[in-house]
Design goal:
By secondary structure, the protein is α+β, with helices and mostly antiparallel strands. The chain has five helices and three strands.
Length: about 120
């Protein structure tokens, strides 16, 4: 139980993950279908099931090749990431296949959460 007067903090994580050569446009197309296209409803349902309350993705050009910069917020990130990696729901399977095609990783096997090394927040000063 939560003590009176305390506020639950949303957990967040950001990470960068390389895109395989030539995959920036397929990422743009796939994520547009999630944001405002044919996969929008399935995407929103998948994120609700995982407990994700915010997700943002940027494509960052870099000298060694493009990277996706991902930001996630959830009440319980460990659970959210587990659900993304293990769910048998059709959208979740599609999402993992997409990650394999554009990043070359098996989300369910290879994702390691990044290490937080700095977190400046004026509300905690």
């Amino acid at each position: 139980p939560q003590a009176a007067g305390t506020i639950d903090r949303v957990q967040s994580v950001a990470f960068a993950i390389r895109l395989l050569p030539g995959q920036a446009e397929p990422v743009r197309i796939a994520l547009a279908s999630c944001w405002s296209g044919a996969r929008k409803e399935a995407y929103q349902d998948a994120r609700r099931r995982a407990g994700i309350i915010r997700e943002a993705v940027w494509i960052q050009p870099a000298p060694g090749g493009d990277v996706a910069v991902v930001y996630l917020e959830a009440d319980d990130l460990a659970t959210a990431l587990t659900i993304l990696g293990t769910s048998a729901e059709p959208f979740d399977r599609w999402f993992r296949d997409h990650a394999r095609q554009v990043h070359g990783i098996a989300w369910e096997e290879e994702f390691t959460a990044p290490e937080l090394v700095l977190d400046f927040d004026t509300s905690r000063i």
